[in-house]
Model the fold of this input.
Amino acid sequence: MSDAGKTPVAAEWPLFEVFIRSRAGLEHKHVGSLHAADARMAVEHARDVYTRRQEGVSIWVVRSADVIASDPEEADALFEPARDKVYRHPTFYVIPEEVKNL
Amino acid sequence: MSPAVATAARADRALNEALLRYVLRLGDTSLVLGQRLGEWVGHAPTLEEDLGLANLALDLIGQARLLLTYAGEIEGRERDEDALAYLRDAPEFFNLALAEQPNGDFGCTIVRQWLLDAWQLEIYAGLQESTDSRLAAIAAKALKETRYHYRFSSGWLVRLGDGTAESHERVQRAVDQLWRFTSELFAPDEVDERMASAGIAPSLSTAEVRWSAHMDEDLRAATLKRPAAQPYPWHGKRGVHTEHLGYVLAEMQHLQRTYPGARW
Done:
């Protein structure tokens, strides 16, 4: 193509995150990301790239720029405090004999 | 054989020959278009478009396999899909001349695809009601694929037409260049008329009205101009092709012609 020397087209296209629902009733799961010029193209690209082998029945795409993410710098503050709170897991509790149907 | 039976047998034979020709036209159009799209693999503008075009190509080749297998059975000369695809010469191919036109730039490929997707959409929709149950079943499967193809190609048409000055100019040029091949899509000949009167194929005049409405709607959205209808000197569906088909077949058939019966 005659695009030599120019910025590759894909680099100018925004990035989209792709979520696929594999079967009715299941949740959409993040499967990857791709470049597309607009939302419609992003759905078509997701269909062509991520559902070629019957991986899905529904597609969501979200502009990566619209995803609000936690800051890795803050990981300690956000996640460390949960580490020593084992009582938050149900397996922490001994179920009394008398409880039959739990 | 009584004269009445002989007449009926002749009519059956004539209908069978027309059906064979009709199925080959459909199958060859899908095959040649699929082969053309395959030329993009490894060359498309982005990885995603590469996969997208390859997906269309595979759908089309899948349709061609079903249709050519059926054609081989109608013909009754023990030719299977491979024999029909790889061992016929250009004059024995009956695809629409539009399908064999070169890829050109990406816009040109999109325009060719859009014109033929919209055509297939109407033909397959009509064939779902065919009195020929085999064709009806093939059409039902192909129609789902074609709806996606049309979504893909019409989306790109609008994106390019209503895009930058350069993309607009290029895609308008492609529309202007390819439009002359569209007359053939809906010009009925004796095969089409026989198929329509037997309830096997949809009427081309009804299909043309709907196709034309799609064209106007998409061209408007893409800010493109519709060229005037032009008479056409090509009759791909009668086996009279542009010079391009020979090159498509040379590449597609090279292996089987060089090593007959080769398998892997």
